[in-house]
């Protein structure tokens, strides 16, 4: 599969326009919503290195990482197959000679096949939040834990955290890396932690009011739940002392950000990470919020075409492939995250010189290739959320009646807007189709359905029905 350049160029242009639009909005919001002057401290000098200084550091770290991995059975075998060792890494481009690592490889090494230090040195174990089967276990030495706290502290500070703040962590604590990662990050900054953990939303609100919480840490969907309860209980968001939220652990949209910010009266920042490479702390937003700064002194991030595994040019969407160069207990080479995002290397006014990544726009395993164009269910969902009257309940059906792919999206109409007036429904259908075309670059037929006619899912929703391989009997 080859990315269609023309489509992507249009899409990128749209992305840039959207981004500029949001930047203007953000500036307006900042004046409106900041409850205190924003602290623009940069925690670590490595966040402002020149490209040359950074690349020298990265090369040293990469060679050291390959050297340390030589005794891990999986890499030992792969290095032999690829004919590489740490001495073959002469420039950062040589990373393409190194083997990729997949989730399946980690599963095959369950539980500790990828450990690169003696077990006695390990200080902590965590696990992936996988929904089926055994988790993927990851390990940390005391130095890894220190590094992890530092990385979380960096993005917390870039999103306004100060040592005098009180932070309520409403993430799950456990094998999942979110709770503990952020907890120690907050402590590293010197702020106070309320380890509230996830759930019991009314108690969260009570703590928030009584303890005068400044910063909320949780998933974006839990922030929405908190906002819902706030509205139901008629609590005025202006009565809260809450100023910022640091949200991560799942994909979310700009529309969700706007809802969370206006209903809680805060600024919400996005951060990114995954347990396989360390947990939260890989990247996070600064006040400009035009992408998340990648902590490039510790992670080498490639953006590859998920089919050809060749690098995509900067500014084009691709799969993030991450090397955690400096982890001691379990460094990982070129981990295929399956997360699709865009990298930006233009200058950021905040002063940090690191490259930035967009929010995750899809998963390469969810990617549909329609008439040669890559489309993600999340893009369809984004279009639906932009049109008043469309419910976020939908199903995408792919067929190939002749030689061309056809896509129909069945969408529920919200009860308040569902009507037997044909003209109203036709106009709603047209608006959704226009929005879908703007975001995906494809014309996709929309079928409107009455409320509650699409099956609800308790776990992961099955959004895509691909019938293109099916013979249609005539
Ligand atoms: Zn910045």
Helix tally equals: 11
CATH architecture of the largest domain: 3-Layer(aba) Sandwich
User: Biggest sheet, strands in spatial order?
Assistant: 4-3-5-6-7-8-9-14-13
Could you name the CATH class of the largest domain?
Alpha Beta
Cα end-to-end separation = 31 Å
Which ions and ligands are bound to the chains?
zinc ion
Number of domains: 2
The overall pLDDT, averaged over residues, is 89
Rg measurement, Å = 23 Å
Number of strands: 21
Shape verdict:
globular
Percentage of residues assigned to helices? 25-40%
Summarize the structure.
Helices cover 33% and strands 22% of the residues. It is α/β, with parallel strands linked by helices and 474 residues long. It has 2 domains: 5-47 and 141-361, Rossmann fold (3-Layer(aba) Sandwich), CATH 3.40.50; 368-466, GMP Synthetase, Chain A, domain 3.
Describe this structure in words.
This protein has about 475 residues and is an alpha/beta fold. It has 2 domains: about 5-45 and about 140-360, Rossmann fold (3-Layer(aba) Sandwich), CATH 3.40.50.12780; about 370-465, 2-Layer Sandwich (GMP Synthetase, Chain A, domain 3). The chain is built from 11 helices and 21 strands. It has helices at about 5-35, 50-70, 75-80, 105-110, 140-160, 175-190, 200-210, 220-230, 255-265, 375-385, 420-440; strands at about 125, 135-140, 165-170, 190-195, 215-220, 245, 265-275, 280-285, 290-295, 300-305, 320-325, 330-340, 345, 355, 360-365, 370, 375, 390-400, 405-415, 445-450, 465. Strand 8 and strand 9 form a beta hairpin. Helix 8 (about 220-230) packs parallel to helix 9 (about 255-265). It is globular, with a radius of gyration of 23 Å. Mean pLDDT is about 90; it is low at about 1-15. Zinc ion binds near residues 286, 288, 293 and 348.
């Amino acid at each position: 599969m080859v990315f269609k350049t023309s489509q992507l160029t249009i899409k990128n242009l749209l992305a840039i326009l959207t981004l500029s639009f949001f930047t203007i909005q953000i500036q307006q919001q900042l004046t409106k919503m900041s409850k205190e002057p924003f602290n623009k401290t940069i925690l670590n000098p490595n966040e402002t290195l020149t490209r040359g200084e950074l690349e020298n550091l990265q090369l040293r770290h990469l060679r050291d990482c390959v050297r340390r991995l030589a005794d891990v059975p999986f890499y030992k075998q792969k290095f032999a197959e690829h004919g590489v060792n740490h001495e073959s890494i002469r420039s950062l481009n040589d990373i393409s000679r190194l083997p990729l690592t997949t989730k399946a490889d980690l599963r095959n090494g369950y539980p500790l096949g990828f450990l690169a230090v003696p077990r006695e040195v390990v200080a902590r174990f965590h696990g992936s939040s996988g929904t089926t089967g055994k988790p993927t276990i990851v390990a940390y030495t005391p130095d890894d834990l220190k590094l992890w706290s530092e990385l979380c502290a960096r993005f917390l500070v870039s999103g306004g955290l100060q040592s005098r703040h009180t932070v309520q962590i409403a993430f799950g604590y456990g094998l999942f890396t979110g709770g503990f990662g952020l907890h120690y990050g907050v402590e590293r900054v010197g702020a106070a932690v309320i380890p509230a953990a996830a759930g019991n939303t009314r108690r969260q609100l009570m703590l928030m009011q009584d303890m005068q919480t400044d910063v909320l840490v949780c998933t974006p969907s839990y922030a929405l739940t908190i906002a819902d309860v706030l509205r139901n209980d008629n609590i005025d968001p202006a009565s809260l002392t809450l100023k910022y939220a640091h949200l991560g652990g799942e994909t979310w949209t700009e529309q969700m950000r706007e809802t969370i910010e206006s209903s809680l009266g805060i600024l919400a920042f996005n951060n990114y990470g995954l347990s396989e490479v360390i947990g939260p702390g890989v990247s996070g937003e600064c006040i400009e919020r035009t992408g998340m700064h990648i902590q490039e002194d510790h992670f080498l991030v490639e953006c590859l075409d998920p089919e050809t595994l060749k690098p995509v040019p900067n500014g084009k969407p691709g799969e993030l492939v991450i090397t955690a160069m400096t982890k001691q207990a379990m460094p990982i080479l070129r981990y295929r995250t399956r997360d699709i995002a865009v990298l930006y290397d233009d200058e950021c006014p905040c002063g940090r010189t690191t490259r930035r990544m967009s929010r995750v726009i899809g998963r390469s395993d969810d990617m549909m290739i329609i008439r040669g164009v890559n489309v993600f269910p999340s893009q369809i969902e984004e279009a639906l959320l932009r049109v008043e009257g469309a419910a976020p309940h939908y199903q995408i059906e792919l067929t190939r009646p002749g030689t061309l792919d056809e896509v129909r999206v069945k969408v529920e109409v919200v009860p308040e807007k569902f009507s037997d007036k044909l003209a109203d429904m036709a106009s709603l259908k047209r608006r959704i189709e226009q929005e879908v075309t703007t975001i995906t670059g494809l014309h996709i037929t929309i079928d409107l359905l009455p409320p509650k006619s699409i099956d609800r899912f308790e776990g992961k929703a099955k959004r895509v029905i691909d019938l293109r391989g099916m013979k249609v009997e005539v």
